[in-house]
Design a protein that fits this description.
Number of helices: 8
Strand content: 35-45%
Order of helices and strands: EHEEHEEEHEEEHEEHEEHHEHEEEE
Largest sheet: 9 strands, mixed
Distance between the termini: 10 Å
Amino acid sequence: MLIINIDKPVGWTSTDVVRFSKKQLNEKKAGHLGTLDPMASGVLPVFLGKSTKLIHLFENIGKTYEATFRLGIRTDTFDATGITVEEKDPSHITLEQLKTVIKKYEGINAQLTPIYSAVKFQGVPAYRLARAGKEVHRKQRQIIIDELTLLDTGMFPEIRLRIQCSKGTYIRTLADDMGLDLGVGAHMTQLRRIACGSVFTMENISSIDALRDKQNLLRLDPLDLLSHLPTLSVNEDEIACLSHGQAISAHEIQSDLMTENQQVKVIDKNKRLVAIGCITISEGIKFNPFKVFI
């Protein structure tokens, strides 16, 4: 099982990184967690081979970003790749005004998806409709912003922020919304993702160069990433059952796992990941696999 956390370069799509990873590591199957726009950089977890079965376990984890917003200019894409649609002088904006607007966006918010996005309308990505000059219906989503911190105003009218938020949050939409609240418009000029949850961070990231030459490429241990799940050890006979998708008895499982539908990881005697599944206790304590890696 192969999992790597790649530092996506600016200009690459997330799909570019996955395609390059497959080629360099000679894997036929791969996927990634959390799409980044081409202008963004940073943490992009890539799962290759059998590890793609793990992606769903991390799909809903929050993300952390560092972003730069430019006040005074609004664009059609809400970022620096777009066309300017409005320009105003932001020089009168005070630090207190910034802090007031920032405070407004902490917590639960309703956010509209950008016109230029991959969100589909009647089966067609919104950005395709927008580029064709057709009307795009922006969809409303509920998002959560756990942290919104102003890091720097030294390059005003550019401001730098750290954002810790839920899955599905559009940072460039946040820039546009804040700009409208301030009355001068704004757009995102830089975006770097610095974490996906607590498991994919800048501490275990690998560069594209490391992937290219396969030197200093940090391969992540799935057991470390799944340390939050209780562990069940199994023998060879039990592994044979699991390989056929069969449930196994778990009478000797620790008492703290004895809850219905408790998610559990299973390892063999060599500490290798065998399966992930859940505990059922209605007819004796059993482990039922839903992802098997052997």
